[in-house]
Amino acid sequence: MNIEDNIRLFFDTEARDHLEVTQIQGDASTRRYYRITGTETSTIACHDPQFCASNLHSYPFLILHALFSRHSLPVPEVLAVKAEYGLLLLEDCGTIMLQDLAGEPDNEKSAELYRNSIDILAGIQSITGDSARLPFRLSFDHEKLMFEFDFFIEHALFNYFAADFKRSDAGALRREFEAITEILVQPEHFVLNHRDFHSRNIMIRNGKPVLIDFQDARMGLPQYDAVSLIRDSYTDLDDALAEELKTRHYRQLKNRGIITMSDDEYLYLFDLMAFQRNIKALGTFCHQTAVLGKPVYEQSIAPTIAYLSDYIASRKELKKAGALLLPLLENGATR
């Protein structure tokens, strides 16, 4: 049987013939999502090949779902699972993403949703746990951050932007990336991060944010997720709102006793983390476009490049990397 046939097994025999199973746009992973209609309430099925090789106690999505639920964070309800088919049946949280509302005429409504999302983020980052268990045993350590930098070099510079970058500069650029990584690996400041906390992974259900795609959560600087939302590749926030959200995030963490860094240190690490996070995003977008043939991601490349110049101009630690990336910055934002 195919995936759609297996999805129908979640329902009784009479209902199966009346179901409509429609694949919907997912993320940049191997997971596939389907909306099921034809019953009283629509639902979402997720097919993940990795679930077949896991069990209910080792599958990251279910571990994170249980953790977030215990801490009263808004996540879709898990209605049923069929691990043997790699399937989960989830509550349908609708079709409206935070991204869809970011450019709406009612700016105050969208601004309030962003404020709510920052408050949810502080809730995630207040969660602590056993460092030997998921998700707390994973982190944005040196190996992980450099993997993301190297992925960018391979798929953005050596492939998508090959005409704009001299391969002979790759060694010098990688040394700069190593130096930036050294600054960002500060385990004493690490907190739990969603890992993809951007406007496409925050659904709006009944006027309130709901989190999706949280299975890759890991420890890292609190700025990692804040950057994902505030300097989002999928939408361009008003500068005043972006600054307000940074301040709100910092104060939430400070008031909860989650961090000890000063506000200046927070902003400094925000800019360096934003540089790394946007570089990582560019690697993903270029790989999805040039290697996997998914042109929908190409439209996010230029907006992401546009962010980089601001970080490079404001932080001396990024100047050398910026000089090596200058052809990309000059040509890529208009490509």
TrEMBL record:
GO terms for molecular function: transferase activity. Keywords: Transferase. Gene3D superfamilies: 3.90.1200.10, Phosphorylase Kinase, domain 1 (3.30.200.20). InterPro entries: Aminoglycoside_PTrfase, Kinase-like_dom_sf. Coiled coil: none annotated. Residues 20-246 form the Aminoglycoside phosphotransferase domain. The keyword Transferase applies. This is Aminoglycoside phosphotransferase.
